[in-house]
Write a structure and sequence with these properties.
10 helices
């Protein structure tokens, strides 16, 4: 029941129905099993997306209070919170990386990134970059990438600029015409590339 409410909340969030999504997450948080942890994290993410930093922080802290090993809550809290030297939350995250802490590879990777951010906030760049380096190493180990082999996937890169601050319909039409003239099977246009 709780997981179904979480899924409902996620669907409502995707449909841009924030009040209904929060209500579903609140009901899921009252259920049993793993659903409450996920619901509290989802609630925090929804509030963060709405710009409610205080509400999101409170949701992540509530999740951590109930589920101290919730890497999703720690990771998202680290994104919002400004850490300082000696912050006990840094030590709590570090403890999760010690023997007996979290074991999942993706959880450990996320904690490394969260600790990197936290320690940068706290002014400990050396330790921060140690965690960030290890997080990147762990993440890199999860996929195969051969730069020399992937070069063949890209036929051409088209640089395209407009003379004004915002591209108009005519500018976009010129880009479409340029792409059609080259007969591309696929074109990737970076988000906000017209406005940047």
């Amino acid at each position: 029941h709780g997981e179904a409410l979480n899924i409902l909340g996620e669907v409502l969030q995707a449909q841009d129905k924030p009040a209904e999504a929060l209500a579903a997450f609140d009901r899921a948080a009252q259920s049993l099993g793993f659903a409450p942890e996920k619901a509290l994290v989802n609630r925090g993410i929804r509030l963060m997306e709405q710009g409610d930093r205080a509400g999101a922080t409170a949701a992540f802290r509530q999740a951590i209070a109930l589920f101290p090993r919730s890497v999703s809550a720690w990771f998202n809290l680290a994104d919002l919170h400004r850490f300082s030297a000696g912050d006990p939350e840094i030590a709590a995250m570090e403890a999760l990386l010690k023997p007996g802490g979290v074991q999942g590879a993706s959880d450990r990777t996320a904690l490394h990134f969260a600790l990197g951010k936290a320690l940068l906030d706290a002014g400990d760049a050396e330790r921060a970059f140690g965690y960030l380096d290890e997080g990147n190493r762990q993440k890199r180990a999860t996929f195969a990438y051969a730069p020399d082999e992937s070069d063949g996937w890209i036929d051409e890169v088209i640089g395209y600029r407009v003379g004004r601050a915002v591209a108009g319909l005519a500018d976009r039409a010129r880009l479409v015409a340029a792409l059609r003239a080259r007969r591309f099977e696929l074109a990737i246009i970076f988000p906000r590339s017209f406005e940047s």
